[in-house]
Design a protein that fits this description.
alpha/beta; Rossmann fold; 5-stranded parallel β-sheet; binds phosphoric acid mono(formamide)ester
């Protein structure tokens, strides 16, 4: 283990929201992620539990890969196999795995973890929120910030617009907080029925009705997934109409400077499938960076526990 990391880390047990991270934490985590990307290695000891109660490809697998690259033992529990299927509560599940001796729990839940008090008062091992309902996805926000910094260099005054289903997006809610704290100007664009109120309070500077205006304004556009599974009513007329009005079409892509998407993508609803990985796309960079950012965060959280 490298000594310098220990000195940087403060007490930090729960990463349930992007607001649990200070600017200093974020700077340290992103620097460490760059070191991991450059080939630096850590050899940690401990047991990580991935408690994934919702489908996931990139978050779950990248946490698994990140943990294994750090030398940690990893177990995974899904909702169908857990005793929550038999009525056990989430908090009892967390207290149970703490008693077994796990050192870190990473959770993905269809429900919001908010209010956090019940968790922080009863569970005494680090917890990383890997996405909770429509509420927060702090590790995706870290990845997006890292990818933007890697691509754009100086972030101050650069413009990013989130496009699509803003209301149901935990990626947006964590992202707007981190991006605006690091000097980026943030806009949103989407159907009126999928734009929440009080955006100014979150740090949003511009709300665009027309996607073409948003594209012209932004240095980077982040398309979001239309979250059918969280929509209990019809917010749009049809997916075809939504794509025509708000999607990334081939014609629009000619005017986009760069684009991102946290995934998974609804091809031909969020983005035209033919241009998903073209030269303006940072989507696979986001996925690749996800492993290094999560290695850094896991190291940060586990070492802060012992320092
Ligand atoms: N971005 C993201 O959270 O993707 P997964 O649902 O595949 O983990």
């Amino acid at each position: 283990m490298i000594e310098v990391n220990r000195l940087l880390f403060k007490s930090m047990r729960y990463i349930l929201s992007s607001t649990d991270l200070t600017e200093e934490d974020i700077g340290n985590i992103l620097s460490l992620a760059s070191k991991f990307k450059g080939g630096y290695r850590e050899n940690l000891k401990g047991f990580v539990l991935l408690l994934f109660f919702e489908p996931s490809t990139r978050t779950r697998l990248s946490f698994e890969m990140a943990s294994k690259k750090l030398g940690l033992n990893v177990s995974t529990m899904t909702s169908k196999l857990s005793s929550m299927e038999k009525g056990e509560t989430f908090i009892d599940t967390l207290m149970t795995v703490e008693s077994m001796g796990f050192d870190l729990v990473v959770t993905r839940t269809p429900f919001a973890l908010f209010p956090y008090k019940e968790i922080t008062e009863n569970v005494h091992i680090p917890i990383i929120n890997a996405g909770d309902g429509s509420n927060q996805h702090p590790t995706q926000a870290l990845i997006d910030l890292y990818t933007l910094r890697e691509t754009l260099g100086d972030l101050n005054g650069k413009r990013v617009v989130y496009i699509g289903d803003i209301s149901h997006s935990r990626v947006f809610r964590s992202g707007v907080d981190l991006l605006s704290r690091f000097g980026l100007r943030v806009g949103v664009c989407g159907p009126e029925t999928l734009i929440p109120a009080d955006l100014e309070k979150l740090g949003v500077e511009e709300v665009f009705e027309k996607v073409d205006d948003a594209i012209e304004w932004a240095d980077v556009c982040i398309w979001l997934r239309l979250q059918r599974e969280r929509q209990k009513e019809q917010f749009i007329t049809s997916e075809y109409e939504y794509f025509l009005q708000f999607g990334l079409t081939k014609e629009r892509c000619e005017r986009v400077k760069l684009f991102m998407h946290p995934g998974p993508v609804n091809r031909n609803v969020d983005i035209d499938g033919d241009i998903l990985y073209n030269e303006k796309s940072l989507i696979l960079d986001q996925v690749k960076n996800g492993v290094f950012v999560r290695m850094a965060l896991i190291t940060y959280v586990l070492q802060s526990r012992t320092s």
